[in-house]
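Technical annex, item 7. During the second reporting period the consortium partners agreed on a shared format for inverse folding records so that results from different sites could be compared directly. Each record opens with the tokenized structure and is followed by the designed sequence. A conforming record, contributed by the partner at site C, is shown below for reference.
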């Protein structure tokens, strides 16, 4: 009986010690902040606005959209007013003119709708493209260093391997196919159309320059004849290009 009493006291003492240790453990856990693992590129594989502009300028001409009015141009600004003015004059006015011409010729107007789709896509990412956040990736790097070779291959979380140039190329192809519903098979024809538009754009600017020079140097008969010849050739070239692009 005495032996049983001693065992019971010993068991109760051990139970109190375990409960005290448990309470101390939970107090320590609650005092420590939770571990956060940020798998972000900001501090490891940074992508800045200048990089995005360079990649877009490279890949937009390679994978042009079907309903483009002119050669793609990438402008980035922090001014909403400047953006609104440029979008109105560079995009909406030409789009309205093209849609008006389409209505007059019995075709379906599509350019303004295309611009609205583009605007919706830009507005969807505006908050994230105009804000800056700084996250620490130390815990993620520590976790990655402790993984076995097999786990590193299976759970590849090393974002330092991301190739941003390849990423943006695939990004534009995805936007073209899944957001604007344009089949990849139309890319070659869109490239040809973009080249013709570029030629028309250059010819128009040259024609305007020659007209300006004619006004300034029109007193010379030889210069006037040369300018008239050049303007005539450019006008014929524009007619051919517009006919081939229609």
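Designed sequence (site C submission):
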């Amino acid at each position: 009986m005495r032996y049983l009493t001693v065992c019971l006291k010993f068991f109760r003492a051990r139970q109190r010690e375990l409960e005290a240790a448990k309470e101390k453990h939970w107090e320590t856990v609650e005092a420590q902040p939770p571990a956060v693992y940020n798998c972000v590129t900001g501090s490891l594989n940074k992508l800045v606005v200048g990089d995005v502009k360079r990649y877009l300028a490279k890949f937009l001409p390679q994978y042009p959209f079907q309903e483009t009015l002119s050669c793609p141009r990438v402008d980035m600004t922090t001014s909403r007013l400047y953006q609104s003015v440029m979008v109105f004059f560079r995009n909406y006015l030409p789009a309205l003119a093209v849609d008006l011409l389409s209505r007059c010729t019995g075709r379906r107007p599509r350019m303004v709708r295309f611009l609205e789709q583009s605007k919706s896509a830009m507005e969807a990412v505006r908050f994230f493209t105009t804000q800056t956040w700084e996250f620490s990736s130390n815990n993620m790097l520590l976790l990655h260093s402790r993984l076995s070779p097999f786990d590193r291959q299976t759970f590849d979380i090393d974002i330092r391997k991301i190739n941003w140039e390849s990423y943006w190329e695939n990004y534009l192809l995805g936007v073209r196919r899944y957001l604007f519903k344009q089949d990849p098979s139309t890319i070659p024809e869109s490239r040809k159309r973009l080249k013709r538009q570029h030629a028309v754009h250059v010819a128009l600017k040259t024609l305007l320059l020659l007209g300006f020079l004619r006004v300034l140097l029109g007193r010379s008969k030889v210069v006037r004849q040369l300018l008239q010849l050049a303007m005539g050739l450019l006008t014929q070239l524009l007619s051919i290009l517009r006919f081939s692009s229609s």
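The mean pLDDT is 76. The chain is about 70% helix and 0% strand. All partners now use this format for quarterly exchanges.
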